[in-house]
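User: Please run a holo structure prediction.
Assistant: Happy to. Please share the sequence and the ligand.
User: Here you go; the ligand is EPZ.
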Amino acid sequence: MYKLIIEGGKSLKGEVKISGAKNSALPIMAATLLTDAPCVIRNVPKLRDTQTMVKLLQSLGKTVEARNNVIKIFSNGPLKDTAGYDLVSTMRGSFCVLGPLVAKLRRAKVSLPGGCVIGVRPVDLHLKGLKALNVKIEIENGYVFAKAKNLRGAQIYLGGVFGSSVLATANIMMAAVMAQGKTIIESAACEPEIEDLANFLIKMGAKIKGQGTPRITITGVKKLHGADHRIIPDRIEAGTFILLAVATRSDIIIKGACSSHLLALIDTLQGAGVKFNCTDDVIRVKTKRSIAPVSITTYPYPGFPTDLQAQFMALMALTPGISVVTDKVYPDRFIHIAELNRMGANIRREGINGIIQGVKRIYGAPVMASDLRASAALVIAGLAAKGKTEIHRIYHLERGYENLEKKLTLLGAKITRKRE
Ligand code: EPZ
């Protein structure tokens, strides 16, 4: 186990290159189960989570070659139909092999993903969508058993209590691409990662329209072939660097990001007085003076992303005045409050709200990483704090941020990794 040591209080300067999107790479890697033909996926970030997906594909019978952010996936004989608890429990994203396995094999046995610190994480929408496609579903001993004589297209409403579901949309889209007839997904997730998955499936020969909108129409085809695809940039990594730049009063050029995927964050920060200089794939953030406190509520895309909520809270903790952070996607996603308060922040939780009394300064302290984005919030706080911060259990960070220490060191941060 390792920890990160950060000497905070310094402004940063320079350029950072954004990696490929983790949450696009995972479902696209799962989609290669839909064909026996070779697939090439480029710009795949080297992360714990993408390594876990490689292992899962290998356990299902795929041969995978991963080198310099390019992953080549080949078949070596018939697919296996079981995704075991050992891998699925370490990464919920594994659950999105269910749809492609059912489409390819007409059967699948996939472990139910556990909950995690950000919430219960149910899968009722995934199962509702599969049943609508004529899949028989049984749950036994913590596994989903799915079976279908044939998959028939259907009109499926996938809106849940918390709005649309990203991975349920991904699972149903991948199950429907070889179903008989037409499938319409209403209240589909509009995230750029869903659009990227649909574009990959279309390259494989799928017939999909409406990706990126709440209504996705899929016309089933008999067979899919291989494809060569480049993953879109990671908007959450880019958003994390924007928030980090503002929190440390830095002048950072973020390269390879899609500014159009970050309009909610950019608009919110402009309202707080942050100046941006954006082109299609370069975002320059230059913040010298203090900003005003602003409140946010998270929603499914294109709303303010829940995956940037913790990082935004770290910034507001340092912005004198009152601000409120409301998470409507994951109402329990506030584990980072306790750790930020240990650094001198003044935040209290009231239900789905974090009420922030911004302070002039926070102070370095030993803190505990808990989930991927809460850990990113602690890195931002540590870089902005006065003194030394030790972040323990940084494997959470390594799940979703490629070469983070290296990228921060190149920007002038004093950050080192030490064995626990
Ligand atoms: C994806 O998770 C992302 N993960 C999450 O990012 C992200 O926070 C989330 O979407 C929301 O944007 C990947 O893409 C691998 P959801 P997903 O289904 O698809 C409820 C990160 O940090 N819901 O869109 O699992 C659910 O409880 C991770 O990279 C149901 O009620 O999330 C939540 O409240 C964390 N029933 C809301 O919907 C269901 O069947 C949105 O969840 C499914 C979800």
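The chain is about 30% helix and 25% strand.
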